[in-house]
From TrEMBL:
It comes from the Bacteria. PANTHER family: NAD(P)-BINDING DOMAIN-CONTAINING PROTEIN-RELATED (PTHR48079:SF6), PROTEIN YEEZ (PTHR48079). The lineage of its organism: Bacteria, Bacillati, Actinomycetota, Actinomycetes, Mycobacteriales. This is Epimerase. One of its GO terms (cellular component) is cytoplasm.
């Protein structure tokens, strides 16, 4: 089928283009910059240049392409991930204005389905909860300190996608990705480099994070083109939630490095308050049973 990927040049975008291409889909990748066209072509996609902040331009682009499915991987975070709430400001704007332009464009063009990237932190930043959490309570937790507008924008983007099928022929699915790891993921590659220098610190605290390998993200997202139900959220996470400290300890052990020093979240918070909350104290042990059952997807144990 013909698929338009917005955010084609992002960290999950290029592996997704390769996955869709290998399945025989006709893939078009959106970028704002013709300089990135060659990256899209190298991953098996046909590049198209447009800016989703320009409502008329994106509507005309989607209409011209006529995709059956649109995949939105529109986030714009710092290269190695957000350290402070203010690092989300460009993403907040993108989720607010640009996200709705893309959904509107898909609806006007009669696209059958829109599949949108979200993230496990849409659940909120609670510090405790059940041993395993599923998608049945979409918003149990509060924002991080100072992050009300950011979390509202993320949840607003999700709601526009999820409700799309109620008033148009374009049904929407939201994929809540875990914290990425694997080759080509800049923050993971930074952890590996730091661990090799014996300097990768672990953030302590009682939090749990759900993780996902970038190749499993591509497979789950490709499956969501024609599996799953419109109006639904799916957790795209590993079988094994893990604290940040345990993740870093395992990584160091795999690299035959000494056990990393654990820093208390309060100390990490002096330099990186958002990261200290998200990866130190937030409770997100998520179930992937719904994605396994409905998207016909299983993450590879690693
Ligand atoms: N779950 C997770 O762990 C998770 C999730 C997201 C991001 N991250 C991390 O955060 C870092 C940054 O990744 P990112 O994906 O946020 O940013 P990114 O790599 O800069 O990708 C942003 C994508 O959105 C597109 N885009 C942005 N604004 C646009 C606009 N106005 N119109 C059209 N397209 C637009 C960009 O297209 P062009 O630049 O080609 O125009 C690009 O493809 C990476 O380290 C990543 O691993 C982690």
């Amino acid at each position: 089928m013909r698929v338009l990927v917005a955010g084609a040049t992002s960290v999950p975008g290029l592996p997704l283009l390769r996955e869709l291409n290998s399945r025989g889909h006709e893939v078009v990748g959106l970028t704002r910059s013709s300089a990135k066209a060659s990256d899209i072509e190298a991953a098996g996609g046909k590049p198209v240049v447009a800016d989703v902040f320009n409502a008329a331009e994106i509507a005309a682009t989607v209409q011209d392409i006529g995709p059956e499915v649109v995949v939105s991987l529109l986030t714009t975070l710092p290269k190695t991930g957000p350290l402070r709430v203010k690092d989300f400001e460009p993403a907040r704007k993108l989720w607010t204005a640009a996200g709705s332009n893309l959904v509107d464009a898909a609806q006007k063009a009669g696209v059958r389905r829109i599949v949108a990237e979200s993230v496990i932190f849409a659940y909120g930043y609670q510090s405790s909860g059940p041993a395993v959490m599923d998608e049945s309570d979409p918003y149990p937790g509060p924002p991080p300190k100072g992050g009300d507008a950011m979390l509202a924008a993320l949840r607003g983007m999700e709601q526009r996608v999820l409700s799309s099928g109620q008033h148009s022929a374009t049904e929407g699915i939201v994929l809540r990705y875990g914290a990425f790891y694997g080759p080509g993921v800049p923050h993971y590659e930074m952890f590996v480099r730091l661990a090799k220098w014996w300097a990768m610190p672990a953030i302590g605290g009682g939090g749990i994070v759900s993780w996902v390998h970038i190749d499993d993200v591509a497979k789950a997202t490709a499956n969501a083109l024609d599996h799953g139900r419109g109006g639904q959220i799916y957790n795209i996470v590993d079988d094994r939630p893990q604290s940040f400290a345990d993740f870093v300890r395992e990584l160091s052990a795999k690299l035959h490095r000494p056990r990393p020093i654990t820093l208390p979240p309060r100390l990490v918070g002096l330099l990186a308050p958002y990261a200290a909350t998200a990866f130190g104290t937030t409770w997100l042990p998520l179930s992937n049973a719904k994605a396994k059952g409905e998207l016909d997807w299983t993450p590879i144990p690693r």
